[in-house]
Amino acid sequence: MRYGVNEQGYYGDFGGAYIPEMLYPNIEELRQQYQAITNDASFKAEFESLLKDYVGRPSPLYLAERLSEKYGANIFLKREDLNHTGSHKINNAIGQILLAERLCKKRIIAETGAGQHGVATATVCALKGIECVVYMGEVDMERQAPNVARMKMLGAKVVPATSGSKTLKDATNEAMRDWINNPLDTHYIIGSVVGPYPYPEMVAKFQSIISLETKKQLLEHTGRELPDYALACVGGGSNAMGMFYHFLDDESVKLIAVEAAGKGVESGHSAATTFLGKEGVLHGSRTILMQTEDGQVVEPYSISAGLDYPGIGPQHAHLYKINRAQYVSITDDEALNAGLLVSQLEGIIPAIESAHAFAYLEKMKFKPNDNVVICLSGRGDKDLDTYIKHFGY
């Protein structure tokens, strides 16, 4: 793949493995074994079987007729919200739990923001009977209380992160500390395309099923397998990488990643990483992140718990730097209004993360026959309290 990783674990200037010495054996074990394990026929068979019979794939590609009429193009929704557990996160969780089994790991840790990755991880651990500990920011635990309850019901231990902004960044820090203290028996299921190599490539590969299916389904719908535009929201960037993966080398496909501007990119309350960030190291890889002049991480903000992360995955940083993908941002209010619009035009309440991608349609101009694919990465049940408070229902 032209835009893929090199043998040293870098996407252009970004990537690598910037890790404490104690984690070196874990990362080296993963680097040496994950390709062989994931390319093994028995792994592929079990992965594909679980995606089909447990997750419910392929997820539909739905032509949203009323949105299409409003925006003057063919708007297709890749329905990851219909997956078991309600989002795209289950694709990666299935892949990594099978990998952990083959690495003979007895304990799983994970971090979560909106809770969707935590629920997906708790689900696959219950499926496989493996101990599960999920780190979650104290603020996120409060605004995503139903997902906390789901994780506990599935048998996971949910540990609050009480430092910093008490959100996703801090939960990731706590998970990293746990892994450093338990390097032998524990596998860390990272939920996005972030972290030290090989995690960004591994997660992207497990999520690439999104664009693989989209190609086939778009061909059935339109006679063309390539869309004119592919859109997805981006925090760390796992659903966006899955949506872009099989279109990266097709230069005619315009890739648009939508970040969270929060209360405005220059308000001091934002998570618009590419607009506000610069190159540095975050959670084990070189990427673009929001930081002060002396390199301290700037606390991000978004009304969406899944998008308030101060960086993006290293492959996204590469795609941004070489202009292969366009990175834009949408405010809280724009996203919430888009979520309401999709609900009332299509009868689908999207996760607030996904609503950021829908909101960008307002800023685009289309030709009548343009085919536009949006990754509807999760359903909005988890965000109902936020919608209700904002609109006063």
UniProtKB/TrEMBL annotation:
<dbReference type="GO" id="GO:0005737">
    <property type="term" value="C:cytoplasm"/>
</dbReference>
<dbReference type="InterPro" id="IPR036052">
    <property type="entry name" value="TrpB-like_PALP_sf"/>
</dbReference>
<protein>
    <recommendedName>
        <fullName>Tryptophan synthase beta chain</fullName>
        <ecNumber>4.2.1.20</ecNumber>
    </recommendedName>
</protein>
<keyword id="KW-0028">Amino-acid biosynthesis</keyword>
<keyword id="KW-0822">Tryptophan biosynthesis</keyword>
<comment type="function">
    <text>The beta subunit is responsible for the synthesis of L-tryptophan from indole and L-serine.</text>
</comment>
<dbReference type="InterPro" id="IPR001926">
    <property type="entry name" value="TrpB-like_PALP"/>
</dbReference>
<keyword id="KW-0663">Pyridoxal phosphate</keyword>
<dbReference type="GO" id="GO:0004834">
    <property type="term" value="F:tryptophan synthase activity"/>
</dbReference>
<dbReference type="Pfam" id="PF00291">
    <property type="entry name" value="PALP"/>
</dbReference>
<comment type="subunit">
    <text>Tetramer of two alpha and two beta chains.</text>
</comment>
<comment type="similarity">
    <text>Belongs to the TrpB family.</text>
</comment>
<comment type="pathway">
    <text>Amino-acid biosynthesis; L-tryptophan biosynthesis; L-tryptophan from chorismate: step 5/5.</text>
</comment>
<dbReference type="InterPro" id="IPR006654">
    <property type="entry name" value="Trp_synth_beta"/>
</dbReference>
<keyword id="KW-0057">Aromatic amino acid biosynthesis</keyword>
<feature type="domain" description="Tryptophan synthase beta chain-like PALP">
    <location>
        <begin position="56"/>
        <end position="378"/>
    </location>
</feature>
<feature type="modified residue" description="N6-(pyridoxal phosphate)lysine">
    <location>
        <position position="89"/>
    </location>
</feature>
<dbReference type="InterPro" id="IPR006653">
    <property type="entry name" value="Trp_synth_b_CS"/>
</dbReference>
<keyword id="KW-0456">Lyase</keyword>
<dbReference type="InterPro" id="IPR023026">
    <property type="entry name" value="Trp_synth_beta/beta-like"/>
</dbReference>
